[in-house]
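so im writing up the methods section and need the Response regulator record in one place, dumping it here so i stop losing it
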Amino acid sequence: MKTPTAIIADDEEPMRQLLRARLHEAWPQLQIVAEAANGVEAIALTGLHQPDIVFLDIRMPGLSGIEAARMLFNRCHIVFVTAYDQYAIEAFEQGALDYLLKPAGGERLKTTCERLQARLGRSPDNIERQLTQLLAHTAQRKPQEFLKWIQAQVGTSLRMISTREVLFFRADEKYTRVQTLEGEVLIRKTLKELEDELDPKEFWRIHRSTLVRVDAIAEVKRDLRGRQMVRVRNSDEELEVSRGNTHLFQQM
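--- predicted struct ---
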């Protein structure tokens, strides 16, 4: 019997690793043949590996998971992966589309794997109509209300931090570090979730592990190794700018 294969597409490497691990637990026979960081890569890797299944994060730079699915649905089985979003969940369920909630796991993942196993012997469902409707609904969605407050557990107290107070967010293993003038706290919300919820005009992703408040940037300079480094106002911190984000500071 042919070994079932899959591709995972998510622009957050930790999320890809977590889903890979959870899938191995729920479906040991499933072979993950490749990982993609965006929709364009997912399409290219699907053409190269011809997987049975593609797991698509719905929010990825360049080409979203929904847009990528429109080009892939007749070639493989599609499963969408999303952070909790009631609007998206309702749309997926209305269209009878497979989806997983981050962090994927538990009964939902088990049920999805069982459904996929039952479908492997037949051609993928034609979900073009559902995808077209989903894209249309997404386009009509009300303007996003951006995150204004961060909740942080400090000892036995719950601290409310205005996003106006935040200098930067930095991924720190299982937590995210929130840096303000008063100090730092740790929260469980991932950097990807924060990026999706914060105003992109106010916070820039300068590195896969760093979101910085634009008006907290004092200067950008190059170090001896030629890397762009951001110096934050009223702080000794210097934050590295990844090569993929140097376009944010084109004058450098």
